[in-house]
Design a protein that fits this description.
By secondary structure, the chain is α/β, with parallel strands linked by helices. The protein has helices at residues 35-44, 67-80, 93-103, 110-121, 125-139, 143-147, 168-206, 220-227, 271-276, 282-286, 301-314, 328-336, 349-355, 370-382, 397-406, 427-435, 447-454; strands at residues 15-22, 47-55, 84-87, 106-108, 209-214, 245-252, 255-261, 289-295, 320-326, 360-361, 385-393, 408-415, 418-426, 441-442, 445-446. It has four domains: 15-121, Rossmann fold, CATH 3.40.50; 123-205; 207-380, 3-Layer(aba) Sandwich (Rossmann fold), CATH 3.40.50.300; 383-454, Alpha-Beta Plaits (2-Layer Sandwich), CATH 3.30.70. The chain contains 17 helices and 15 strands.
Length: 470
């Protein structure tokens, strides 16, 4: 019997069989149900040697698969010399244990696969803490199954703490150790998150902020590098980015925004990971505008956009959103080809533009459409433009320089230590002036009063409380 000890599961270069059980409410690609699982397994480093699919109205309680399929799976494992079976479903601890006993092979589900990928990709302190917490939360209810193989150990030195052997005593010790470790990790994470919350809130006050969000592998990091000085890790694989990177984005005319790139979304993300990574999405919660990046060349792009919007709804991210139709160069290439064998996109660019009015079509690789995207964000940054007469003190060199360089000045008049500038300016620019300490009159009225009374009044937004602090 193969060793099914789950204490040190590794997927690197291990021969793997992929299994998917299709239920009536399945959201998988109808033409290739295991496509995403295949990409996840390859990202984890597995060597895929076989695949199996079964359609069921409801999963079989003990093994998830039907009895005949379990026997078929056992034969496949032997013939292909597979070392692990990866399910595209979430299995219970009892189902994993039962399958391992019947197939004599390691069994992991979709959640554990994603956890494995996240663990290998986590580089920042925050990401490492979040991943370990998620792993422990996933492992805790499965301790009994993980220890079951030790019940057959006989002879030799005692296993466990002190002289106590495996069994209920060791199980309870492990449970306590897990809970103690979880408590310490959560305390450390709270400290990291508190610092990050302050940083994000300050950045929002000091700058106009934009956040890139989208399905994993939609090209967010490549787009981030194209719009900024770069530095984000870009790779054609799932979850290339786990942390958050923030850089200045030059919007032209002396204007800029702080652009953030963060972890991608995926369907059926393990709930422990969603909970752990919510703080990573603070850049999204506090951003002034969200850029929803869609890989239009992907045949499942519509479902991916639905998943992203669902996640954004769950974290109450209801600010201005711009759909960014990415990889249009690849989309054109695929739609111009013929042949039923191709995994063709379901929509042409024209159909996307009709379905998503106001979307911006871009190619992060060729640069097409990036200027149009910058113009749209700049318009949001400025807000409604108006022609007004600003009055500033001549000694306020910073404020005067800001107006001269960042707005369209029509006329200048210098009187008694003050400068009167007739200019075309937006609300956000006025707020930046005030935030920098300038005392400004707008058409002879204190700027704060003018904004409140008759300058494009903004609806009051409730102060956002990060989900992990609720």
């Amino acid at each position: 019997m193969k060793d099914t000890d789950r204490s040190d599961i590794t997927l690197q270069q291990e021969k793997a069989i992929l299994v998917g059980v299709l239920l009536p409410d399945s959201r998988r690609d109808a033409n290739d149900p295991l496509r995403e699982l295949r990409e996840l397994a390859r990202t984890a480093g597995s060597n895929i040697v076989g695949e199996m699919i079964q359609s069921l109205k409801v999963p079989r309680g003990q093994t998830y698969l039907g009895k005949g399929k379990v026997e078929q799976l056992k034969e496949m494992i032997g013939e292909l010399e597979a070392g692990v079976v990866i399910f595209d479903n979430e299995l219970s601890p009892r189902q994993i244990q039962s399958l391992e006993e019947q197939t004599s092979c390691k069994i992991i589900d979709r959640s554990e696969l994603i956890l494995d990928i996240f663990a290998n990709r986590a580089t920042t302190k925050q990401a490492q803490l979040q991943v370990e917490i998620a792993q422990l939360q996933y492992t805790a209810p499965r301790l009994r199954a993980m220890w079951s193989h030790l019940g057959q150990v006989t002879g030799g030195a005692p296993i466990g703490v002190g002289t106590r052997g495996p069994g209920e005593q060791q199980l309870e010790v492990d449970r306590r150790l897990v809970q103690q470790r979880l408590s310490r990790l959560k305390s450390q994470l709270e400290e990291v998150q508190a610092r990050r919350t302050r940083q994000v809130q300050k950045r929002r006050l000091d700058h106009f902020t934009a956040g890139l969000v989208g399905y994993t592998n939609a090209g967010k990091s490549t787009l981030f590098n194209a719009l900024t000085e770069g530095g984000a890790h870009a790779s054609d694989r799932l979850f290339a980015t786990l942390g958050t990177r923030v850089e200045r984005w030059n919007l032209g005319g002396g204007n800029s925004a702080m652009l953030s790139d963060t972890v991608g979304f995926i369907r059926d993300l393990p709930h422990h990971l969603v909970a752990s990574f919510r703080s990573t999405l603070e850049e999204t919660i506090f951003a002034h505008v969200l850029l929803l990046v869609v890989d239009t060349s992907d045949s499942e792009a519509e479902q991916h956009l639905d998943t992203v919007r669902s996640v954004l709804d769950s974290i109450e991210a209801d600010q201005e959103q711009i759909v960014v139709l990415n990889k249009i160069d690849r989309l054109r290439e695929l739609t111009e080809r013929t042949g039923a064998h191709l995994d063709r996109p379901k929509r042409t660019l024209e159909q996307w533009m009709e379905a998503e009015p106001g979307a911006i079509a871009v190619s992060a690789t060729t640069g097409e459409g990036l200027d149009m995207l910058a113009d749209r964000v700049l318009a949001l940054q400025k807000g409604m433009l108006r022609t007004v007469r600003l009055t500033l003190e001549l000694s306020d060199s910073r404020g005067v320089d800001f107006v001269e360089k960042r707005t369209e000045v029509i006329d200048r008049e210098y009187v008694d230590g003050h400068v009167h500038l007739t200019t075309v300016i937006g609300r956000r620019q006025i707020e930046e002036l005030l935030g920098g300490g300038s005392r400004v009159l707008i058409d002879g009225i204190e700027a704060v009063e003018a904004l409140r009374r008759d300058w494009d009044p903004k609806p009051e937004r409730a102060t956002r409380i990060p989900p992990h602090l609720r």
